[in-house]
């Protein structure tokens, strides 16, 4: 499987490059793209529009602002696209959805299968206790840009779905400190070099269920992205996520 890696010089892009060079997923690099020109033994570019090499899938770990150019290139070349960035605007999310009618796109706030399992467990627990209070805490390194994390939003969406949509989100707390009935709280901490920690507390008033996940290495996200690339390779079109791989 030949892949184009976008954001190849970034923190996660380098992890994908390392995983591919290490033989993970029987993948090979067709080209590398980054605004900071990658120094790799393969065709390298600062703009995906300049890539001329044939490839099976694009893996993107650049920045959500590159969404439009990535989609333009992918749809023009009828190439499957794995979008592993987070923080997309509503307009960018709509662009992704529309493009998925023409090509297969894998988009997830977290590429970890363990996180997909956590989301599933949260849905199950909240469905059993729909009136319980739900609080989500996420911890990441102090250089992470988007707040809250895409994973925290995935967990909140899962809890909301289990409450049959009868819930709202709140980042942090209200000024008066009171939590309205049904509101899901999301708390973000930025410290040190934490790769990623997520915890969901579900409190019924008489008992508390705590579900959590800790990432020990960024390699798991790179491996997840390569697995996602193999998953959508050969599909005609559609919008896919980690949950689709689980099922």
Description:
- Helix content is 32%, strand content 25%.
- With 247 residues, the protein is an alpha/beta fold.
- Strands 3-2-1-4-5-6-12 form a seven-stranded parallel sheet, with helices on both faces.
- The longest helix is centred in the middle third of the chain and has 16 residues, at 113-128.
- The chain starts with a strand and ends with a helix.
- The model has no long low-confidence stretch (mean pLDDT 92).
Secondary structure elements and pairings:
Blueprint: E1 2-6, H1 11-21, E2 28-33, E3 44-45, E4 57-60, H2 67-76, E5 81-83, H3 90-99, E6 104-107, H4 113-128, E7 133-140, H5 150-162, E8 168-171, E9 183-190, E10 197-203, E11 208-214, H6 219-232, E12 238-240, H7 242-246
Parallel strand pairs: 1-2, 1-4, 2-3, 4-5, 5-6, 6-12, 7-9, 8-9
Antiparallel strand pairs: 7-10, 10-11
Keywords summarizing the entry:
single chain; 247 residues; alpha/beta; 7 helices; 25% strand
Short description:
This protein is α/β, with parallel strands linked by helices.
Estimate what percentage of residues fall within beta strands. Answer: 15-25%
How many DSSP E strands?
12
Helix content: 25-40%
Q: Which structural class matches the secondary elements? A: alpha/beta
Number of helices: 7
- Overall, the morphology is elongated
Low-confidence stretches: none
* SSE string, helices as H and strands as E: EHEEEHEHEHEHEEEEHEH
What would you report as the Rg, rounded to the nearest angstrom? 19 Å
Q: Give the termini distance in whole angstroms.
A: 23 Å
Q: Could you report the average pLDDT, rounded to the nearest whole number? A: 92
Side-by-side strand order of the widest sheet? 3-2-1-4-5-6-12
């Amino acid at each position: 499987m030949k892949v184009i890696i976008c954001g190849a010089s970034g923190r996660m892009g380098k992890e994908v490059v390392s995983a591919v060079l290490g033989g993970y997923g029987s993948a090979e690099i067709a080209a590398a793209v980054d605004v900071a020109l990658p120094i790799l033994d393969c065709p390298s570019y600062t703009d995906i529009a300049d890539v001329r090499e044939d490839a099976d899938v694009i893996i993107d770990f650049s920045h959500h602002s590159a969404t439009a150019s990535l989609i333009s290139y992918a749809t023009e070349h009828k190439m499957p696209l794995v979008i592993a960035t987070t923080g997309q605007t509503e307009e960018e999310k709509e662009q992704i959805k529309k493009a998925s009618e023409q090509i297969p796109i894998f988009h997830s706030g977290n590429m970890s299968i363990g996180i997909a399992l956590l989301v599933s467990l949260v849905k199950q627990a909240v469905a059993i206790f729909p009136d319980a209070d739900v609080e989500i805490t996420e911890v990441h390194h102090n250089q992470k840009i988007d707040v809250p994390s895409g994973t925290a939003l995935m967990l909140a969406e899962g809890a909301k779905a289990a409450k049959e949509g009868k819930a709202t989100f709140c980042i942090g707390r209200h000024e008066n400190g009171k939590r309205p009935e049904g509101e899901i709280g999301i708390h973000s901490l930025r410290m040190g070099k934490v790769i990623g920690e997520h915890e969901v507390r579900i409190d019924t008033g008489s008992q508390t269920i705590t579900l959590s996940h800790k990432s020990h290495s960024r390699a798991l996200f790179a491996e997840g992205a390569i697995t996602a690339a193999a998953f959508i390779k050969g599909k005609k079109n559609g919008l896919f996520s980690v949950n689709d791989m689980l099922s």
